Amino acid sequence: MFAYLVRRLAYALPILIGVNLITFALFFVVNTPDDMARMQLGVKRVTPEAIERWKAERGYDKPLFVNSAAAGAQQLTDTIFFDKSIRMFAFDFGRADDGRDIAREIATRMGPSLAIALPTFILGLFVTVSFGLMLVFFRATAIDFWGVVLCVAMMSISSLFYIIGGQWLVSKVWHLVPISGYGGGLDAPRFLILPVLLGIIGGIGSSTRWYRTIFLEEISRDYVRTARAKGVSELVVLFRHVLKNAMIPILTGVVVVIPLLFMGSLIIESFFGIPGLGSYTIDAIQSQDFAVVRAMVFIGSVLYIVGLILTDLSYTLVDPRVRFE
Amino acid sequence: MIEHGFQSVVLWTDALFFLLIAASVVGLIHAWRSPPLRASWQRVTRRPTGMAAIVVLLAFLAIGVLDSLHIRAALAPVPGKVEVVYATEVNSVLDLLLARQRSDVERTYSAPLATHSFVKENVERADGGQGRDYARLKYGGAHLDDPAQQRGDDLRERILHGAWLGGAVALAMAAVLGVAVGGPVKLLLGRTRLAWRAAWITFSVLAVVGGIVFSLAQGYHVFGTDKVGQDVLYLTLKSVRTALMIGTLTTLVTLPLAIGLGILAGYFGGWVDDVIQYLYTVLNSIPGVLLIAAAVLMMQVFIELHPEWFSTAAERSDARLLALCVILGMTSWTGLCRLLRGETLKLRELEYVQAARAFGVPPLRILLRHVLPNLMHIVLIALVMDFSGLVLAEAVLSYVGIGVDSNMASFGTMINAARMELARDPMVWWSLAAAFVFMFVLVLAANLLADVVRDAFDPRAS
Question: Residue A49's domain spans which residues?
């Protein structure tokens, strides 16, 4: 087990290096720092001095890979590549355009993001798996048919409309909860309930249908027929046999997402003004804060790789046949 | 508008779009000639949902095609000058058809079918004094002398007229289609082999709704106007092309990458497989939106700093749309690639491929003749399934500000603009509603078709 973990982590390193190279190429090779400075300072009236100052403020005034002006090891370390790319592996992301430390900002914003994402994920999983089981229980009846129709219809609605519609109905017409904002402590649920609810509703269509397909595949297996032949009731078959055996495909899709919950939901956080990582990313994209976007890309891929490893580990929990040797 | 002649303009996306349509037509002809493929397609067209979805998508496609035929109108000739000067503005055939909706710009918001503005403005009273009141619209319902009295009757008359028009078209279609499939009675009773009745019913609904909208649009803003007074119906119809482009052109990047790399990795294995797997794992591990955001940000800088490449604003927003399609394609080929790799791994071990190899058939020939055709059903299913996802993604990306150019009509920009209006009281709901209805119908049709296609082509589905 331990050896397996070490090996997986060793595999992860080249992938992170690849991610790093791609972001580096995107941000510093496709457009030079000069281009970015000109873009940010306004294309028309910009002096060479202003560009130099902009680059110096962000540490973009060094050479890309090799600093021939420096001596010794500094030739390689005093470069943009080392400063902006290699340091990321130590989670040192530098400063955002507003001068704040990105790593610290990320740490403080994780809380609100998780406060939204975790309940959405857990409740959403519960609701959609239950609906999926229900449709399978009523399979080949009108309930199943119209359930699937409803799922397809719900899948066809853009997530933006769920949020806009929910905000309008619940906050504006019924005045039940504030339209947006965030508060800590006892005040939090008032702000969280609507985004969580809308996050769940937005995912019901596609997830329910996905689980229904998985369960239907499982229910046509021989062991299910055997169980029924022995007189096991349909409900017990569903919960004790089908659900248990469908865990592998469910986990494959679900566990990868868990670490990414830290990243928050871009759209929901921005609509509800929640100071999490999702809205941080959107703000950075809109104000073209390249340092923040690069940091989020890196963190996102780290979390994704962690998710993949967790998925493999979770298989051992639900399926004793899976072992790591 | 084009009385002095015109010059046709082919934007990059237009050319690629028509290329794609031509390729699909060739593909369909090929499918018609090969019995197993024809049987699969007949399974699609035998299902009423499949047929209805195809008709709806064809209607959207027609709008997209009309909006992709671009021209520049010639300016009125100046006496004494011989050469013709063309306007810098690039218009599409759809623009010409909707000339009225395009040019009838009100001052600001107006509700659907309204005759008066939505907000109070300074108006001159009948007695000569000034005051704040709901002003008459410049174009909406301008033909009425006394809107309060006449509007209801006028609307009723127009709706009836439009429904009659649409009904007539639907009946004509029933006659034509009936002759083609062996008698109108057979068609209406649904006793045809393919689901022609579903197709006809869908067509009739579209024709009647279209007729009513057309008839109302002659005198009113059917979906109201937006903040700067533009007709929302016009904006919505223009958005259809953007959605179609994003949904289809992306495949031009996805397919070569996914098919080429997937087959190579699966067939050759070894270090080729390792490299390709590494490539897609790296791309896959970056959260999609972030990768797209990073690439779009860089593309924005690039376009901004090279204004000399684009002679008109249309070319510029077109370049941006194309770049967005390329970026979406670059980030979304990995899933299909992995599927194709797995399937190729299985095919490689089958007897007929082994036999071909034993006979010394070169690898490239084996891949093209024996492996690729047996993967095409996966490609087709993935294509149809991705389409709706891409249309939905466009809206989200434009909302985040990394979508299409902000002056290009798209569902995302419409929603984004309308979001601000929700805070108003009373609410401006019509542009959201129009974007919602069009997007919903488009994506729903695509999802339904995807289901039917998957059932028909996937050998595992029973």
Answer: 2-90
